[in-house]
Design goal:
This protein is mainly alpha-helical and 291 residues long. It has 2 domains: 202 residues, Alpha-lytic protease prodomain-like (Up-down Bundle), CATH 1.20.1510; 76 residues, Cation efflux protein, cytoplasmic domain (Alpha-Beta Plaits), CATH 3.30.70. It contains 8 helices and 3 strands, in the order H-H-H-H-H-H-H-E-E-H-E. Strands 1-2-3 form a 3-stranded mixed sheet, covered by helices on one side. The longest helix has 30 residues. The protein starts with a helix and ends in a 5-residue tail after the last strand. It holds the Pfam family Cation_efflux.
Amino acid sequence: MDRHDAATRSTLVSVWVNLVLSIAQVAIGLLARSQALVADGIHSLSDLISDFIVIAANRQSGLAPDANHPYGHHRFETAASLLLGVLMLGVAAGIGWTAVTRLFSPASIPVVHASAIWAAALALLAKELLFRYMLTVGRRVDSKMLIANAWHARSDAASSLVVLAGILANSFGFPLGDPIASVIVAAMVARMGVQIGWAALSDLMDHSAADEAILAIEHAVAGVSGVRGFHDLRTRTVGDFVLVDIHIEVDEFLSVRDGHQIAESVHHRLKAIPRVLDVMTHVDPVPAASH
């Protein structure tokens, strides 16, 4: 199974899980008079929207390079991650505002029905299982977008745990437990939104590759016959991939053909490294005394 098929399949699983959860949580939350459960249901609904964003971005990022996108469409995944982050911040703001408003009028907070406890517990279990499944798939195909979506699901599981605690507190005579749980859920969603959004912004600002990827590149270049040294190694991320610029040093007395062949060897060696999308090499002649 390639990464696009894996992304589509895992996201469709998430779609169905979040669809059922959002409907059930909102409906039971309204009937059981639990603001926290309704908030968690809205959170699940935001996940459903994010799943459709992931599906669209996954399809777009898989398109072949064209005249307007010579490096491919991989940044669509980064843009999708940024949109997910913004979406989560919006959901957090809505949930937090409603909860804080309720906190200022505690007399209006009703006693939550016991059915909300069971609904929150089942939602917690479903979201934790979904997180583990999506994270496994994301790591297997090495997709930042899928991993981000998996951690989004984990934030949902954590929020369901908080909701369950708040509903239990309300049921045992602490009415503020329900809106306080809603405020905590809002804070958790906002924190995850900032993390996902900032990571996407870093990629859009041409963040360098991870240290282990840079070490692999340096090791590969050093192992190419004819390379006397290298400098000005630069990397930048494009979605889940890496672009490489490097200056290689060769004997000054080599012919243009030989220097070109060494550069081609470097190019092919680096392209063999997983996730290296393209390589730009510059050949610098150096005297023997500088080797």
